[in-house]
């Protein structure tokens, strides 16, 4: 059931208990976890943190901890399945679920004993009513059979009519549930939810606010929410930032060397440009790369013209941002915006937030997202998912800037790999139109293919590639199609990872129907698939089943 008072129905309930925190591997979940950890430390609440990467992980973690814990907090996992059916917990186990994945399973919505949903109801409009889903016909049947027995053995048409009506009602219930569960999408951030809890408890700090900002920015960077939703939530965060800045104006530590200042920025959509050279950032940012079509010779020529139009010397543009002349840096944003308008890039600036740690270190919220995501899916060493999770969690602390800078270095490598792979796929025509959708498969042996065996990296590549394809194709119909992308997952096991994303559109509501489509295609062809990710539009599939699985998808979606 939905919790209406998060302070009373959640925080005060767990305040004197031991709690198991089961946290999904995404940036919003990491930020929510950091906020909740800070609150728990503040009130000396005992907890155990368990990172979970998928449903199997979640089931294993629950089995390992169900004897020691009664209260479980699930962050960005658990809402979109019938959790009690999956975990089979004891009757006294209580689950508090804060999950951005939609739709929420209706069984979780109407279970008022063990499932407590930390979800804003205004974000979850359209939940089918209890009667539409669970209405029981047993009583009516009982009444009808009683009437028939009074009439002796007369074979009345009454029962048949009732049966037809009951079947129709059952079909209607199933249809209502199917329609509700058809599309997967994302709503309010978990980090924002827990920040609002901290605010209600009057225990919110600047660190917590910054984590909430990063959680929001994560959903924008990874294209999970609409632009309108992002702008609305930015306005909410801006009010909190103003409140904190005003509160700390007169404090002595506002000028100390280890102070923290969060500011609202109208900054450039150039990824990591303050930690890179301006030239490399323009080349490896999705927005500018697609606008210029940098995978073509014409695009490269247009970029040189753009730099000339700005009047920036190539020597300055190609060196690290920190080393550029102060006279150039002062007006850089305005200069870039003016030239961008001439080249059709009217949205080169975006509302966001920046932070200063002391006098030297400045980061944008998107820098933090890219760094943490790169650490979370690091493929450089044979380290476990839990090790990567802890590293990414550490990078969000201002006390561990070394870890953050290492994450930024990894993020640069990842973005260059994405850019090179996109250019390669476009230039070699690897994107095929399969009728109802576009399809691209990364062959084993493709440079950096190991990097794209991770779900976040492959999804980022998939979105970048679709945007680039839409900018480059002349086929108007293809511009309206969704994209399915597959890459090798585990060569020894012979598996591939498959991701489906909705069509590229500024006005898109970001709803993704591939989760249900993948299930049906696998079922109809007996393909060996693993639906283990919390995001249902990401699955693992046996390589030899790939062609029949795709054929079934084409038939299903045509």
TrEMBL record:
It comes from the Eukaryota. It holds the Pfam family CDC45. InterPro entries: CDC45. One of its GO terms (molecular function) is chromatin binding. It is found in: Nucleus. Residues 136-164 are annotated as: Disordered. GO terms for cellular component: DNA replication preinitiation complex. Residues 136-153 have a biased composition (Acidic residues). PANTHER family: CDC45-RELATED PROTEIN (PTHR10507), CELL DIVISION CONTROL PROTEIN 45 HOMOLOG (PTHR10507:SF0). This is CDC45 cell division cycle 45 homolog (S. cerevisiae). The lineage of its organism: Eukaryota, Metazoa, Chordata, Craniata, Vertebrata. The gene is CDC45.
């Amino acid at each position: 059931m939905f919790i209406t008072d998060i302070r009373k129905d959640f925080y005060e309930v767990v305040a004197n208990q031991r709690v198991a925190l089961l946290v999904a591997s995404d940036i919003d979940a990491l930020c929510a976890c950091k906020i909740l950890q800070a609150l728990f430390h503040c009130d000396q609440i005992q907890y155990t943190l368990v990172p979970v990467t998928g449903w199997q992980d979640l089931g294993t973690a629950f089995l390992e901890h169900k004897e020691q814990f009664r209260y479980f907090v699930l962050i960005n996992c658990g809402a979109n399945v019938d959790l009690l059916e999956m975990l089979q917990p004891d009757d006294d186990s209580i689950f508090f679920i804060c999950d951005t994945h939609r739709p929420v399973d209706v069984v979780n919505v109407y279970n008022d004993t063990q499932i407590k949903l930390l979800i804003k109801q205004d974000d979850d409009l359209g939940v089918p009513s209890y009667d539409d889903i669970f209405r029981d016909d047993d009583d009516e049947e009982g009444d009808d059979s009683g009437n028939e027995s009074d009439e002796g053995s007369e074979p009345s048409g009454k029962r048949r009519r009732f049966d037809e009506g009951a079947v129709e009602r059952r079909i209607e219930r199933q249809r209502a549930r199917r329609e509700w569960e058809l599309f997967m999408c994302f709503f309010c951030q978990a980090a924002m939810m827990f920040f609002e809890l901290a605010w209600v408890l009057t225990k919110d700090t600047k660190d917590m606010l910054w984590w909430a900002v990063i959680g929001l920015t994560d959903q924008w960077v990874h294209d999970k929410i609409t632009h309108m939703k992002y702008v609305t939530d930015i306005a909410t965060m801006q009010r909190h930032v103003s409140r904190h800045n005003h509160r700390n104006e007169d404090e002595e530590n506002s000028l100390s060397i280890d102070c923290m200042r969060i500011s609202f920025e109208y900054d450039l959509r150039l990824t990591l440009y303050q930690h890179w050279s301006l030239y490399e950032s323009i080349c490896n940012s999705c927005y500018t790369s697609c606008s210029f079509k940098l995978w073509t010779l014409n695009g490269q020529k247009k970029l040189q013209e753009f730099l000339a139009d700005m009047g920036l010397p190539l020597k300055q543009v190609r060196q690290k941002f920190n080393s550029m002349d102060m006279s150039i840096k002062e007006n850089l944003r305005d200069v870039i915006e003016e030239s961008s308008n001439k080249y059709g890039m009217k949205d080169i600036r975006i509302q966001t937030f920046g932070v200063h740690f002391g006098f030297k270190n400045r980061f944008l919220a998107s820098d933090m997202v890219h760094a943490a995501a790169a650490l979370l899916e690091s493929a450089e060493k044979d380290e476990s998912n839990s090790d990567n999770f802890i590293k990414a969690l550490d990078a969000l602390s201002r006390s561990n800037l070394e870890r953050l800078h290492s994450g930024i270095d990894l993020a640069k490598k990842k973005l260059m790999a994405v850019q090179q792979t996109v250019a390669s796929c476009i230039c070699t025509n690897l994107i095929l139109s399969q009728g109802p959708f576009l399809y691209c498969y990364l062959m084993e042996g493709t440079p950096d293919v190991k990097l794209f065996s991770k779900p976040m990296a492959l999804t980022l590549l998939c979105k970048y590639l679709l945007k680039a394809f839409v900018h480059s194709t002349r086929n108007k119909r293809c511009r309206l199609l969704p994209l399915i992308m597959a890459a090798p997952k585990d060569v020894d096991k012979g598996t591939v990872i498959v991701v489906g994303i909705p069509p590229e559109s500024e006005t898109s509501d970001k709803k993704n129907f591939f989760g249900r489509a993948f299930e049906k295609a696998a079922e109809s062809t007996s393909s060996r698939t693993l639906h283990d990710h919390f995001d249902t539009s990401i699955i693992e599939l046996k390589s030899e089943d790939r062609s029949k699985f795709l054929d079934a998808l084409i038939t299903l979606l045509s």
